[in-house]
Amino acid sequence: MSIAVAVVGAAGRMGSTVCQAVQDADGLELVARLDIGDTVSADTLNGADVAVDFTHPSTTEDNVHALIDAGVDVVVGTTGWTDESYERVREHLARPEAAGRSVIIAPNFALSAVLTMSFAAKAARYFESAEVIELHHPNKVDAPSGTAIATARGIAAARAEAGLGPVPDATETDPDGARGAVVDGVHVHAVRLRGLTAHEEVVLGNPGEQLTIRTDSFDRASFMPGVVLAVREVGGREGLTIGLDRLLDL
Ligand SMILES: NC(=O)C1=CN([C@@H]2O[C@H](COP(=O)(O)OP(=O)(O)OC[C@H]3O[C@@H](n4cnc5c(N)ncnc54)[C@H](O)[C@@H]3O)[C@@H](O)[C@H]2O)C=CC1
Ligand SMILES: O=C(O)C1=N[C@H](C(=O)O)C[C@H](O)C1
């Protein structure tokens, strides 16, 4: 039996690529394309089992709640999620009327990016310094990227677990934010450049040595195997799953 899939944000860069990937995938059937102005309802979802959301950070949480209420499982690639918004989804999924529903939210579906996050967290305890540089196309609406935030959090958690203190940094004056955003103590720098798609570099430093871990998504095709995997697996995972790494046994 095939899995019926609705795509929310279907007219966007990711949404349109996902529609094509669903149409090309064995055992998946594209049954609905929704975009801005469309209401989420059983009617518009047209019998979908799973909805995939690639929309906008300002709307993705509302979409997820509406999709759960409409009785579908949800795969989310949209960024902008916080601990609080994750918690609200967990609470929603715990209600009796949402029994059996599941949601997967992943800041990045590309294998190279998921491995970069995993390798960075593994390496973090061995280095005094760690910073993240994300580089994206100039149409991206949010900074830092969801992937960079997740990477920085993973590094920070690994440093804390290893008992490492703050990264060394003697900077005293930075009126224009040249040292970037600081996510859980890890500096994150965002580049927006015409010609780029989605890239990230994690730099880790010790006296006399540097480790660089880099991921490059040159094409949105890079995200599709991960999205298709999540669509296939979401139904078997009750509750909220955060990150594609959880599906890859990393
Ligand atoms: N998790 C991952 O692997 C990836 C995540 N992303 C994230 O996906 C999101 C979308 O990125 P793009 O496709 O590049 O953006 P985009 O701007 O090309 O597409 C977004 C689409 O969502 C639609 N939209 C906006 N509000 C809506 C609503 N309330 N209901 C339905 N549709 C709505 C827009 O009209 C547009 O067609 C961003 O948050 C981006 O960071 C992007 C690439 C990979
Ligand atoms: O907007 C994008 O393009 C991307 N967004 C995601 C993010 O913010 O991490 C994933 C990837 O970097 C592409």
From TrEMBL:
Binding site for NADP(+): R33
Predominant place of localization: cytoplasm
EC top class, as a word: oxidoreductase
Catalysed reactions, as listed in the record: (S)-2,3,4,5-tetrahydrodipicolinate + NAD(+) + H2O = (2S,4S)-4-hydroxy-2,3,4,5-tetrahydrodipicolinate + NADH + H(+); (S)-2,3,4,5-tetrahydrodipicolinate + NADP(+) + H2O = (2S,4S)-4-hydroxy-2,3,4,5-tetrahydrodipicolinate + NADPH + H(+)
EC numbers: 1.17.1.8
Domain of life, source organism: Bacteria
Keywords of the record: Amino-acid biosynthesis, Cytoplasm, Diaminopimelate biosynthesis, Lysine biosynthesis, NAD, NADP, Oxidoreductase
Domain Dihydrodipicolinate reductase N-terminal: 3-109
Residue positions of the active site: H136 (proton donor/acceptor), K140 (proton donor)
Record localization: Cytoplasm
CDD domains associated with the record: DHDPR_N
InterPro entries: DapB_C (IPR022663), DapB_N (IPR000846), DapB_N_CS (IPR022664), DHDPR_bac (IPR023940), NAD(P)-bd_dom_sf (IPR036291)
Similarity annotation: Belongs to the DapB family.
Quaternary context: Homotetramer.
Protein name: 4-hydroxy-tetrahydrodipicolinate reductase
Gene source species: Actinomyces ruminis
Gene: dapB
